[in-house]
Amino acid sequence: MDFELRAAKEKYEREQRDKKEKARQRLDREKKLKEEAAKRQEAIDAAQRTRRIEEAGATLDAQQRQEEVMWLGDGIVFDKDYLGIPVPGNGDKLKLPASAFSELSSQNALDKGPMFFKVSVASERATASSSSESNAYRTEDMEANHTHAGVLEFTANEGFVEIPPHVWQNVGLASGSSSGLAKVKVCYVRLPKGTYAKLRPENPDFIDVPNHKAVLETKLRHHASMSVGDLLTVQHAGVDYGLRVMDLKPSSSVSVLETDMEVDVVGSGDNNEDGSSAQSRLLPLELGKSQTGVVPEGEYRYYKFSVDKTNGKAISSGELSLLVHLSVETSGGAADADVYIGAHPLLFPTKHNHDWSSHDKGSKVIMMTSSGREVGEGTFSIGVYGFSGTTSYQVLVEVKQAVQAPPGQKLGTRGSVSSPSSSHQQGEDGFEKCENCAQLIPHRTFALHEAYCRRHNVICKHPNCGIVLRKTEMEKHVHCGKCGQALQRDELEKHTKVFHEPLKCGCGAVLEMEQMVDHRASVCPLRQITCRFCGDMVQAGAEAENVRDRYRGLTQHESSCGSRTTPCDTCRRAIMLKEMDLHKAAAHGGPSQIESSLLSDSTPLSGQIGKITEHAGSNVRVADSQPYTPSHIECPICSRKFDGHETWQLNEHINTVHLSSQEEAASGMQVESSVVEETVNRFPFSTTKRTLSVACPICGMAVHSERDLSSHIDMVH
């Protein structure tokens, strides 16, 4: 009995323990579930709170952005995201889609003047939420770099904006994306007119540019705005220079349209990324002090030197000579270098474009004052070109007293030659002419000289040479088979390569070096000229399309640049720059140059073109051997065309068709104002009886306007 009771008791206790354990486990599970539910609820509440805070922040940011956009746009709201497309161009003007024009015009943005836009990069950033189960991502627009721009036209595709290189670079997209597109934000803003700018060159080379004002005006003519931090890339003589905008007034972003700005160009940022000093391409060279250097084959090393006013006057008068020495170390190899010299504004002379050069083998000397080109006060550049191998050299510029060089001597060569001429006149008493060397020799030593001369000397029989040489030197004396120049035998190969190997110009012309230099100085459309209107050194371009501009000797660039208008100083009328002298002569009685620029009736057209083009300046001279003859001549009144060599037909056509009808019409007019009649009667050729305001400065005939005066000069003069 007791055994059964104990077994029952143990069973009961075991069942109770099992029940308690199950109850405890159930309670633990329920507690854990409640804790997890509480955590989930807490996370949901936190996410909701964060979302509400972010939404409130986004709403506040949007409101602030809206207020900022409205304030920047002076009440006009335009803030769009576009896909930016890099396109070639010069300046900072965008191409926007047509919808942008509609939206802006609906807000009367056109009535507020020029439109400006703030351009920035719209980048995406991902942020993770605090939830342990999932991550939430959001896109946030961030304005990293920004700049300002104008608008060129509204012709871009919808959703895209075409961005020129200047804007593309200054918003931080210089390298571009893999697809060539970038998301940008374009916001309409109003900008004040700039009054002051401080610019810092990125390297010290810009200080050598002769006319900073003209270079900056040419660059900013294509710009609408400027912002602090922008990098302006200006070009002079085909070389790019970077200018960093350091300061602007009255704001950090200003308009450069129709405003006069004071510009300071401060010291260059002449430190490299590693902190070392950046070296200018033009190394300064003092007169009388030499510098050494090394130039690899096919590369240039440039130097600059200046001639002051005192030395300049002495050099111009012939009292002093200006010499450039280049000593080349030729020992141990065939290394050699050539030297090219250019007068500023030519900063970097090359074998295609230079004023002086020397290609002698080994060391060489250039006497700049013996070239026939005027040399005086100014700055000059020297280019040392590695002709073959890596060459060590020493360059020296010195000023010496002018000494008459012996006739026949070739400056810069190592061998000396004698001259067949003499300061004595043939037939002078006491002298006799040697038949071998053609020298005048005193009678007392003539027999001795003749015996010695016939034994040791010989005359070169090459046409136009006649140099007397030692018989041992005659073996080394040769002449170029193409140009006939006298050379040493070891110089012939280099001479042929330098002077007779064809060179290809960027315009497509293939010429030898001397012809190439003339080509680049006179007729090449890629040649650099100093524009008479903007003062900058720019590419000349092809011949002017306008016939009158060609008669005046204007290049394509000058024809376009001269078409810009500027207010007349006297009457404040907007006059084209190329017509300003005509306007002043006709309307204000000022000096005019039109008489020397226009054709006369008796002068053939083909004979005048070369003269007038050469009169325009050395930058646009035309060789006399190749006068310009137009393929056809067009009547400036009825546009009838005549062959280029039939100029008499054009003159007869104008006289019979246009001038006769003009005289008949003018003879029937009556005077309506006594004041005008007195003005007209002062000119005997004026038969016009209407109210006339402009008189021709050549013949005195009165016409109605400057446009009529222009037509009158074309027809008559």
Automatic annotation (TrEMBL):
SMART domains: ZnF_C2H2, ZnF_Rad18. GO terms for biological process: DNA repair; ERAD pathway; ubiquitin-dependent protein catabolic process. Residues 593-606 have a biased composition (Polar residues). GO terms for cellular component: VCP-NPL4-UFD1 AAA ATPase complex. InterPro entries: Rad18_UBZ4 (IPR006642), TRAFD1-XIAF1_Znf (IPR049439), Ufd1-like (IPR004854), Ufd1-like_Nn (IPR042299), UFD1_N1 (IPR055417), UFD1_N2 (IPR055418), Znf_C2H2_type (IPR013087), Znf_RING/FYVE/PHD (IPR013083). One of its GO terms (molecular function) is polyubiquitin modification-dependent protein binding. Keywords: DNA damage, DNA repair, Metal-binding, Ubl conjugation pathway, Zinc, Zinc-finger. Residues 694-717 form the C2H2-type domain. PROSITE patterns: ZINC_FINGER_C2H2_1, ZINC_FINGER_C2H2_2. Residues 1-48, 407-427, 587-610 are annotated as: Disordered. Residues 1-43 have a biased composition (Basic and acidic residues). The keyword Zinc-finger applies. Belongs to the UFD1 family. This is C2H2-type domain-containing protein. The lineage of its organism: Eukaryota, Viridiplantae, Streptophyta, Embryophyta, Marchantiophyta.
